[in-house]
Specification:
Distance between the termini: 61 Å
Order of helices and strands: EHEEEH
Largest sheet: 4 strands, antiparallel
Strand content: 15-25%
């Protein structure tokens, strides 16, 4: 009799990073709100990246203010999303 193969837990998806474009003052307010609840946040002028924590990887997309545009979603991690969206850091 053969033993059943050990079951592996399903892979947890990587957290989503939201690539945003909007007025700096409005992005600042959005960043503060998400930073307060534990999300990773970065911004440069009119662009921002907000990344969900691992435990919220499958959470629904947040709502954004009307003046903020979602330009894309990445699952490559916060640092990679920042390099992609904000450009290289010096």
């Amino acid at each position: 009799m053969t033993e059943p193969a050990p079951s592996t837990p399903p892979a947890v998806p990587a957290p989503k990073s939201y690539l945003l474009l909007g007025p700096p003052d409005l992005l600042h307010d959005v960043l503060v709100e998400f930073d307060d609840i534990g999300w990773a946040v970065s911004a440069d002028r009119w662009q921002a990246v907000i990344t969900a924590p691992s435990e919220e990887a499958d959470s629904p997309e947040p709502g954004w203010p009307a003046q903020v545009t979602l330009q894309g979603i990445s699952r490559d991690g916060h640092e990679a999303a920042c390099r992609e969206h904000l450009g290289p850091t010096e």
